[in-house]
Design goal:
By secondary structure, the protein is mostly helical. It has a domain of 345 residues: Up-down Bundle (Amino acid/polyamine transporter I). Helices cover 72% and strands 1% of the residues. The chain is built from 22 helices and 2 strands. The chain has a two-stranded antiparallel ribbon with strand order 1-2. Helix 7 runs antiparallel to helix 16.
């Protein structure tokens, strides 16, 4: 590691040891044949697919199943819209990781200061801990479906999670993850055996609607779908995992391909679960009566076939393991970033005690909390996914700011069209969370009219903001073109050598307003969750 390198842990430099191949640090030969390209992709593939399959975790499986049970096929369109959101958000963190060699939490701290770092990472730690708890909820419910006590399956799953992570070998961890990734393909027989209605499914994909009307409960579930499909932890995990795998700008296009493949895998899996649940419950007394994922498995078994219920329960267990590993690692990576600790899966326990210690402590504590009796597990799971959706706009804002920081990314900064897409994504996410906030305060309001009014206001603000940016950048100095060779070899200098960017008064006001709004939104989400819990008793 050179004195001007930005990389914080020397274990993040060296050969790439992927689950399916190795790329030497000295290997700079061009990939001219398809065979060489496919072998390179096989060695690189991992962070993108794992983060996406981890995205279809216990909360994801439960949320998609709830959408199918309560709203039939009518919410399938939300998944189609989330494909570009996934690809855009995760491509940006892939670029940040490969070019800077520094984790997301560390970049926020160094470029925006300790306050915003702790605001972002504090949100992350809270949300990730709650998310890890939902993974153990999934493990508990899957075990109960097969007749096993939670006091047996939850500790056993915790031991599995710790065992596959603390080996001190990145390749071994990644191969273990791919075993569980392969098991997630059970969504395909789940779909086939459920015999969904193809006409209703096609209509659900192409016609945006909500069966029964757009209510505050529907808004909560749509936010939960967004939050479980595009979660803040994914940004932190994939950036750090790309760094830990030692992927540099030379191999960036391969990691982007890994991410795109993963995006389609996650959406196809989500659609399979939603359609299977809709097929099982449509026209039955259980339609619209979601309780938890175990109830969905039981419904699939009674309305379709016991084998289908067992497949769903196995999927739930598998998804919980992958999700728990990825979410916990995202937190440990961020912990290492913020405190400047060694944080690499290439290191053994003795070399990175606090990294593995924080991982083990989170797994153990989350597992213990889930064993508390008579907790409303289904509502907790939905609320945690909705919380992820509410916190995502602020995470995306910091991501976009970093990806426009020329000192950080040099020739790899965002193009104008990408900023426009990211701005639209943030606007839509804020719209959904505003609907939830207002309908919680004013439950009798007409939700459809509210959405129309808010969408109109936000459209005007989005267009106005875009025009202002276009006008302000017209007079900016043009950046000289960079050759492909210079671009491939460009890396961020050491963070200590970079001057922290100055924020305008308008940007400070906007960020403080956003953070204050998020605090209010989180409080009102908790109110909504309590209302739903009381309503079930």
């Amino acid at each position: 590691m050179t004195p001007t390198s930005a990389v914080l842990d020397e274990a993040h430099l060296g050969d790439i040891h992927g689950a399916f191949g190795t790329i030497r640090l000295s290997d700079v030969a061009p990939r001219r044949t398809w065979r060489r390209r496919l072998l390179t992709l096989a060695a690189i593939v991992g962070p993108g697919i794992i983060v996406m399959v981890g995205d279809n975790d216990a909360g994801g499986v439960s949320t998609y199943a709830q959408a199918g049970q309560n709203f039939g096929y009518s919410l399938l369109w939300t998944l189609v819209l989330l494909i570009p959101v996934l690809i855009v958000n995760q491509e940006m963190v892939v670029r940040l990781g490969a070019v800077t060699g520094v984790g997301h939490a560390r970049l926020i701290k160094e470029r925006f200061g300790k306050f915003w770092a702790w605001f972002s990472v504090g949100d992350l730690f809270l949300l990730n801990f709650l998310t890890i708890s939902t993974e153990f909820i999934g493990i508990s419910l899957a075990g109960q479906y097969f007749g096993f006590s939670p006091y047996l399956v939850v500790p056993l799953a915790a031991l599995i999670l710790i065992g596959i992570t603390v080996t001190g070998n990145f390749r071994r961890w990644e191969r273990a993850m791919f075993v569980f990734v392969a098991a997630s393909l059970l969504v395909l027989p789940l779909l086939v055996l459920s015999h969904p209605d193809p006409g209703a499914a096609l209509q659900g994909f192409v016609r945006p609607s909500v069966q029964g009307g757009f209510t505050s409960n529907a808004a909560l579930l749509i936010i939960a779908i967004v939050g479980t499909t595009v979660a803040p932890w994914q940004l932190f995990f994939q950036q750090s995992n790309v760094i830990d795998k030692r992927i540099t700008p030379r191999w960036l296009e391969y990691e982007k391909a890994d991410t795109v493949i993963g995006a389609f895998v996650v959406v196809i899996g989500a659609a399979c679960i939603m359609m299977a649940s809709a097929s099982a419950f449509t026209g039955t007394a259980g339609f619209g009566q979601f309780d938890n994922a175990r109830g969905v498995a039981q419904g699939l078994a009674s309305h379709i076939h016991p084998v289908v219920g067992s497949i769903f329960a196995l999927l739930l267990f598998d998804a919980s393991i992958v999700g728990a590993s990825a979410v916990t690692l995202a937190t440990s990576y961020a912990f290492g970033d913020i405190f400047g600790l060694r944080h690499s899966l290439h290191r053994g326990v003795r070399e990175a005690k606090l990294f593995y210690g924080s991982y083990t402590a989170m797994v153990a504590l989350a597992a213990a909390i889930v064993l508390i009796p008579r907790a409303p597990l289904g509502i907790i799971t939905t609320a945690v996914q909705a919380l992820a959706g509410i916190l995502l706009p602020s995470a995306t804002v910091f991501l976009v700011l970093l990806c426009n920081d020329r000192a950080v990314l040099g020739p790899w900064v965002n193009k104008a069209w990408l900023n426009a897409v990211a701005g639209f994504i943030v606007t839509v996410l804020l719209l959904l969370s505003l609907v939830l906030v207002i309908t919680t305060v004013l439950p009798s309001i007409d939700v459809t009219k509210l959405v129309v009014v808010l969408a109109s206001v936000m459209a005007v603000l989005l267009v106005g903001g875009g025009l202002w940016l276009w006008i302000s950048q017209r007079g900016a100095a043009r950046v000289p073109p960079v050759s492909r060779a210079e671009r491939v070899n460009w890396r961020m200098p050491a963070l200590a050598l970079l001057e922290r960017p100055a924020w305008s008064l308008a940007r400070r006001i906007a960020m403080i307003t956003l953070s204050g709004y998020l605090v209010v939104a989180v409080i009102l989400l908790a109110v909504k969750a309590v209302e739903l819990t009381i309503g079930r008793h």
